[in-house]
Amino acid sequence: MLTLPEFPVRQRDFLLEISRAITAQLDLTEVLRRVLEASVIMLAGRVGVIALNDPETATFRVRAYTGIKREQVDALNERLNAFISTVSMGTDRRLLDQQLKEMAASLSEELVQAVAMPLVFAENPLGLLIVFRSYEASVTSNDLQIMQSFADQAAIAVNNAQMFEQIKQEQQRLSAILEHNADGVIILDANLDILQVNRAFEQMTGWTADDAVGQPQEQVIIWHQIDGRDLHDAVADGWPNIKDPRKTQKEENQSQAYSDTFYVEGELARKDGLTLSVGITYAPLFGQDGKLHNIIGNLRDITNFRRAQEMQNVFISTVSHELRTPVALIKGYASTLTRPDAKWNEDIVRNSLGVIEEEADRLTVLIDDLLTASKIQAEHGVRLRLADDVRLDILAASAVERQRMQTDKHTFVVSFPSDFPAIPGDATLLRQVIDNLLTNAMKYSPRGGTITVGGRFNEDSVTFFVRDEGIGIPESELPNIFSRFYRVDNKLTTTTKGTGLGLYLVKSIVDAHGGTINVKSQPDYGSTFYFTIPRD
Ligand code: ADP
């Protein structure tokens, strides 16, 4: 507790001392506490309050008090705001004095006098300091001067503390953004040592912040494979261009070099030895002096993007191959038939026309699949033309009849209960589903075997299945096979025709019917694809 020193010389020292103590403080609550304590001592008061202006609500609120109880603060807030509005109306002094007296009396019967001092900074009313006394004494102009300069010091300190608080809040906001960013963030100093990383960075790289911070970045960002230069090489080549402090901001913005970020992508080696496809954008941060202070790296997981790109490439080569084969056959047979110098017998002509027709059919199916797939993509789903009496058992029987002609290695079994019900659905699309499953069953059982097509039903739904005794699908591939353009990488898929669209279409169509599709498979023993569709 401070004590009142002897007046006047030592009091000035005292004032200086507390001014220093106050202005050195940045914690607002502590500043207010000290200002209040010193003021109460200066005026030999019993009670002191500091109210600060809250610009958001445009009201004054008590932020520090001494000599009164917590319960008295709400009522005091009201009286204070009434007092402030009287002040702002420029009403005469007597009314103000009256109001202050009433305020004093409302706090305690013993309080008979109040001295109020505004806290003003750069003409901004920051708050109000009031000291209440239990005796009435005149305040000399010298006292007032000292008090005012003291209040000014306090206002500066309050202003500093408020600014500091704002900066602190801003900093907290930035750290929250940094920490919860879905992209990985790494902050480097000018020597490329790691200063900070966020949570997403930890998850993406397997490095904890504790292990990574303080390390040179190339100890942590290790590329398994990289497209182009890494950060180290870029810096060695002169990136980033040093900011010229003589340039204006506008010139800087126009200068390509300054705004340049550096992008690198590749396969990052995680700490646990796994790899991850990432793209990192590095941005330089310069100080006022034009010197490079930090480099901020933003890591994005581009696994899906790369996979999509790869699939697109595979798709383009498969589709062009798939299109070229039938076109080449059609062209070959047609030009042979139309050769002016040859006369073909009827058998050859019929056979050749048969091949042309078959290949044209294959083209039609392929083009239909492509169109349906791009339509699904564009419309985010399949649009159904519903009929309410689609018989999957009948569609299956006729699909089997069609396929039977194409193979002599496979035996077909069709197995439906005799009362298998009709369902609401799009017959054309469901036929496409059955055809696709059946074609796959044949394609992926090159040694032949039995293909069983059948169904079951209950009150709510019907289930349809196609079972083969073919090569099967490894478990790790099961989550992928319904993706667009996805083909399992094995010997058979490199030699059989396909675009990786079939099961994607099948799943999209089943989904559109409110159904689900699944597969059970055992490599070398065969697969069963089954889907369930609701009956209403
Ligand atoms: P594709 O045009 O390659 O046949 P699909 O989308 O129909 O494309 O099938 C995707 C992949 O799933 C195929 O490449 C194949 O590897 C695998 N697959 C589909 N059906 C079967 C099956 N009955 N048996 C084994 N593998 C299958």
TrEMBL record:
<dbReference type="InterPro" id="IPR036097">
    <property type="entry name" value="HisK_dim/P_sf"/>
</dbReference>
<dbReference type="InterPro" id="IPR004358">
    <property type="entry name" value="Sig_transdc_His_kin-like_C"/>
</dbReference>
<dbReference type="InterPro" id="IPR029016">
    <property type="entry name" value="GAF-like_dom_sf"/>
</dbReference>
<dbReference type="Pfam" id="PF00512">
    <property type="entry name" value="HisKA"/>
</dbReference>
<dbReference type="Pfam" id="PF02518">
    <property type="entry name" value="HATPase_c"/>
</dbReference>
<feature type="domain" description="PAS">
    <location>
        <begin position="170"/>
        <end position="215"/>
    </location>
</feature>
<dbReference type="InterPro" id="IPR036890">
    <property type="entry name" value="HATPase_C_sf"/>
</dbReference>
<keyword id="KW-0472">Membrane</keyword>
<keyword id="KW-0597">Phosphoprotein</keyword>
<dbReference type="GO" id="GO:0016020">
    <property type="term" value="C:membrane"/>
</dbReference>
<keyword id="KW-0067">ATP-binding</keyword>
<dbReference type="InterPro" id="IPR050351">
    <property type="entry name" value="BphY/WalK/GraS-like"/>
</dbReference>
<keyword id="KW-0808">Transferase</keyword>
<dbReference type="InterPro" id="IPR035965">
    <property type="entry name" value="PAS-like_dom_sf"/>
</dbReference>
<dbReference type="GO" id="GO:0000155">
    <property type="term" value="F:phosphorelay sensor kinase activity"/>
</dbReference>
<dbReference type="GO" id="GO:0030295">
    <property type="term" value="F:protein kinase activator activity"/>
</dbReference>
<dbReference type="GO" id="GO:0007234">
    <property type="term" value="P:osmosensory signaling via phosphorelay pathway"/>
</dbReference>
<keyword id="KW-0418">Kinase</keyword>
<keyword id="KW-0812">Transmembrane</keyword>
<dbReference type="InterPro" id="IPR005467">
    <property type="entry name" value="His_kinase_dom"/>
</dbReference>
<dbReference type="InterPro" id="IPR003018">
    <property type="entry name" value="GAF"/>
</dbReference>
<dbReference type="InterPro" id="IPR003594">
    <property type="entry name" value="HATPase_dom"/>
</dbReference>
<feature type="domain" description="PAC">
    <location>
        <begin position="262"/>
        <end position="314"/>
    </location>
</feature>
<dbReference type="InterPro" id="IPR000700">
    <property type="entry name" value="PAS-assoc_C"/>
</dbReference>
<dbReference type="Pfam" id="PF13185">
    <property type="entry name" value="GAF_2"/>
</dbReference>
<dbReference type="GO" id="GO:0006355">
    <property type="term" value="P:regulation of DNA-templated transcription"/>
</dbReference>
<dbReference type="Pfam" id="PF00989">
    <property type="entry name" value="PAS"/>
</dbReference>
<dbReference type="InterPro" id="IPR003661">
    <property type="entry name" value="HisK_dim/P_dom"/>
</dbReference>
<keyword id="KW-0902">Two-component regulatory system</keyword>
<dbReference type="GO" id="GO:0005524">
    <property type="term" value="F:ATP binding"/>
</dbReference>
<dbReference type="InterPro" id="IPR013767">
    <property type="entry name" value="PAS_fold"/>
</dbReference>
<feature type="domain" description="Histidine kinase">
    <location>
        <begin position="318"/>
        <end position="536"/>
    </location>
</feature>
<keyword id="KW-0547">Nucleotide-binding</keyword>
<dbReference type="GO" id="GO:0000156">
    <property type="term" value="F:phosphorelay response regulator activity"/>
</dbReference>
<dbReference type="InterPro" id="IPR000014">
    <property type="entry name" value="PAS"/>
</dbReference>
<protein>
    <recommendedName>
        <fullName>histidine kinase</fullName>
        <ecNumber>2.7.13.3</ecNumber>
    </recommendedName>
</protein>
<keyword id="KW-1133">Transmembrane helix</keyword>
